[in-house]
Every structure is written in C-alpha cells, then in structure tokens.
Amino acid sequence: QVQLVESGGGLVQPGGSLRLSCAASRSIFSIYLMGWYRQAPGKQRELVATTTRGDTTNYADSAKGRFTISRDSTKNTVYLQMNSLKPEDTAVYYCNAQTGLMSYWGQGTQVTVSS
What we know:
There is one protein chain. This protein is mostly beta strands. 0% of the residues lie in helices and 53% in strands. It has no helices and eleven strands. The protein has strands at residues 4-7, 10-12, 18-24, 33-39, 46-52, 57-59, 67-72, 77-82, 91-99, 102-105, 109-113. Strands 2, 4, 5, 6, 9, 10 and 11 form a seven-stranded mixed sheet that branches. A four-stranded antiparallel sheet has the order 1-3-8-7, with no helix packed on it. A hairpin with a 6-residue loop joins strand 4 (33-39) and strand 5. The protein is globular and about 40 Å long. The chain starts with a strand and ends with a strand.
C-alpha cells in the first residue's frame, strides 16, 4: 500500500508556472507507473501525464510542450512542472500510483489559473 500527498497548487495568472509535488509514503522505485490527472468542475477526471519506472513519459495533448513530469526515487516524490498555464488548466490535480493490480490516489491539490 502507498499513501500519496500532493502539494504545490494555488492561484496563478495566465502564462504563469507552478510545480506540483506528490510525496509517497514508501519507496517509489518499484512502482511501475505514476502519473498526474486532473478534474475540472463538471468534467470527468482526465490524464495529464505519466512516467514509468524506466522514465518513459506520456502526456495528454493539452500538456505537451508546457508540462513536464519527473520522478525522484531518492525523495519518493513525483513532480509536475507546469508552464504557460491557461485558464482551462484550472482543476483539481491528483497524483496516481499503479502497482500491479492496485491503483492509489492522493487527495488532490487545487490549481486555479485566473487574472
């Protein structure tokens, strides 16, 4: 089992940047897939980006070129660097970890992009 705690959300102006962090309660070295998802009001949760244990990354089209996912196994943390933020990026961002048949979620962190 693994607990995930997100942080780093907040209010930012359009064009600004934020870095989200997801701290895991145990080593993430063996966790095959970790990722970030988001859910805007009235919408379904959607993939933002994922990273595998071998550092293969995958991004939603909306995130390509603006967001970067990375994992630091020494700190048991996964990051999401978000640049050139747009109002449509406003959502609750969730961290996810998949280990075999189990999928774990954090509690989410709110990101609001507004002037």
